[in-house]
Structure formats: structure tokens, C-alpha cells
Amino acid sequence: MNSLLLLPGDGIGPEVTAESRRILDALALPGLAISEAPFGGASIDAHGVPLTAEAEAAALASTAVLMGAVGGPKWAGVSYDIRPEAGLLRLRTAMNVFANLRPARCFAALASASTLKPEVIEGLDLLFVRELVGGVYFGTPRGIETLPNGERRGFNTQSYTSSEIRRVGVTAFELAKLRAGRVCSVEKANVMESGVLWREEVTRLHAERYAEVELSHMYADNCAMQLVKAPRQFDVILTDNLFGDLLSDLAAMSTGSLGMLPSAALGEAGKPGLYEPIHGSAPDIAGQGLANPCASILSLAMALRYSLGAPEAADRVEAAVEAALNAGARTRDLGGTLSTRGMGDAILAKLGA
Ligand code: NAD
Ligand code: IPM
Ligand code: MN
Prior knowledge:
The protein is α/β, with parallel strands linked by helices. The chain has helices at about 15-25, 40-45, 55-60, 85-95, 120, 160-175, 195-210, 220-230, 240-250, 295-305, 310-325, 340-350, and strands spanning about 1-10, 30-35, 65-70, 100-105, 125-130, 140-145, 150-155, 180-185, 215-220, 235-240, 265, 275. A 10-stranded mixed β-sheet has the order 2-1-3-12-11-4-5-10-8-9, with helices on both faces. It has a two-stranded antiparallel ribbon with strand order 6-7. Helix 1 (about 15-25) crosses helix 10, helix 10 (about 295-305) runs antiparallel to helix 11 and helix 11 packs across helix 12 (about 340-350). The protein starts with a strand and ends with a helix. Nicotinamide-adenine-dinucleotide (NAD) binds near residues 258 and 279.
């Protein structure tokens, strides 16, 4: 039997996850057990840590995990190693979800909702494959120290091994074969040795196994500029943990709003995937019913497709989101007036139609 663990988290996390839950209930998938656990700040409040051993075990035992978002000013004072975001990093590591798929797709109805010109983003359909369990987020040594002269030094280590690069590269090339067949690998080989190794390993993997895919390389700073100038030049962007974080938020605006971008974090075949909107807990709008639930609902669709063996249900959910947008349904971030619940209602109505 399939099982889905919901980790609503903090801020707007529970608000958007509630709408995904309603979609899930409407789908009434046979043989799917749904459970829920506190995560992030909510778990700190209840249990003193952002991810309990029980919640971690439940995630590892599930077929898929759908997360909301974690963090917020309420937990700004907790010790750094148990902050809400540390719980998320720990969960990603425990699940070993090394490949983070972040599709940036501009729905036709939203071409004028972006701050970019419609003619630049109409038809945009690109996929980030972001390495998620390595790089500077996890490298050691790391810390803050006081030097003999009294100065303080904060330091982190950017580090990648060849196998870490190759396994996420395989994901990017395999997905490119199902799309337009182009991978752009993004690093800063001009200033970082980890970038040099990244480029060498991706080039070697391509030559060994994926000659039918077109491979190009780009420095991350240029990529940021190209994503604003001409984002449709890209099919799959393969990049590291930190650059993938920055560039996917940047590209989110080409889809109309950060509230539109879903994600799927995948590890070894047969292991559970971790699904979450790419946005955070949005403390500035939390508790007001203003959040756009589309990124969460589209993340649920990715869970249905990649973990739960229900691709038809995934298609239905994505079609319902598109139909609701076509009918003019918009939350405030998209220039509309609907509440989170109102947007959920509009999508539910199309799901039933
Ligand atoms: P954020 O993504 O929470 O918000 C950035 C801006 O986008 C805000 O103005 C917010 O209102 C808006 N926004 C985000 N999601 C939206 C939605 N669904 N609908 C409408 N508007 C939306 O980023 P931040 O403010 O830098 O971070 C807030 C907290 O969230 C921090 O604690 C951060 O660490 C955390 N965070 C968590 C995750 C995660 O859980 N995966 C991701 C990013 C940030
Ligand atoms: C994201 C977030 C996380 C990240 C944080 C909250 C750990 O920004 O999922 O994009 O940096 O990966
Ligand atoms: Mn981010």
C-alpha cells in the first residue's frame, strides 16, 4: 500500500498544504494511506527539535513526502543546529534525495502576470536539476571562529566528489531525453576547483552514455543574466545546490510568481521522494489566507507522477490548475483577489469538471 506523509511546517506551509490535501481527498486514490507530522518550527514548539526521530522514520517508511515550508522569525533565536531549516537539510540527507527537479513553466494564462515582458516568457518550459545533498550546504570544515587577532571568521566548504556529480548528471540527462534533449550544465569553473571537476565529470558522463543529448556549459553568473534575457533558450539546467537554489527563485518570476514553482527531490529508485513548493514560509503574508497554493498543488502532482504511480491523476491535477488559471482564478501574487482557499476551490471545481 502507498503512503503519503504530509509535513505542513510553518507560516504559509500549512495553508497551502491544506489545499493540496483537499485535492488529494477529492482524487480519492484507492489504497493510499495519508498521515501527518509536525516539522520545522512547529516541531520545535511541540518536541524541541525540527525533525523528530519518529517523523524521520515515518518519512523514510513512506512512499512520498509532501512538505509545506519551514522557518520564520519566531525561531530566529533557536540554536543554529536545530533551526527549522536545519531540520529540512537533515531530512533531505536522511532521504538521500540528491536530485531536485524544479520545473519552471509559464502557463499561457500567466504570461502577463510576470514582471518580465510576455514575449520573453510565453511558452517557457525549463527544468532545473539541482544537486540537493552536497556542495557548500554540507561541506566541512564549517563554522564561526575567533582568530588570535580578535577578528571573527565564518567559513563553509564547497565540495563535490565525482560520484555526487555523476549521479545527479544521470538524472539530468535521462530527463532531457524525455524533453527537448538539451542539458546546460552551470557552475563557476573559472574560479572554483569544484566547478572544474563538475564540468569534467559532466563532460565525461555525456561522452560515455548520453551522446544523443546536446550538452552545453555556462558560468552561473551568465546563466542568471540569460534567465532574465532569454529564458526559453534552456531545456534542462543542471547545477549545484547553491546555484540551483538562487537560479530557481530567479526563474520562478518568469512563471508569474514564486508561488507557482513546485519541486520533486528524488534519490535512488524505489526510495521515497520529497515534494515541496520552492518557496518558503512567507512570514510577511502568513496567517492571512493570501498565499498561492499552486506550487504545493503542482508538487502534489509531481508526487503522484514520480512516487505514487498515478500519472493520470497527476495530469488531472495539472490540467485543473491550468483550467482554473485560464478561467481567471488568481491569488494576490498573480494580480488577483482570491484567497488561498478560493484558489483551492477554483482548482477543485475544475478537477471535478
Ligand atoms: P519566502 O519564499 O518565504 O518568501 C519570499 C517572498 O515571496 C515573500 O514576499 C512571500 O510573501 C512571497 N511568497 C512566497 N511564497 C508565496 C506564495 N505561495 N504565495 C504568494 N507569495 C509567496 O522567502 P523568505 O521570506 O526569504 O523566507 C522566509 C522563511 O522561509 C525563512 O525562514 C526561510 O529560511 C524559509 N524558507 C524555507 C523554504 C522551505 O521550507 N523549503 C524555502 C525558502 C525559504
Ligand atoms: C529551498 C530553501 C532551502 C534551501 C532552505 C530553507 C534550507 O531555500 O528549498 O529552496 O536553501 O535549499
Ligand atoms: Mn530556496
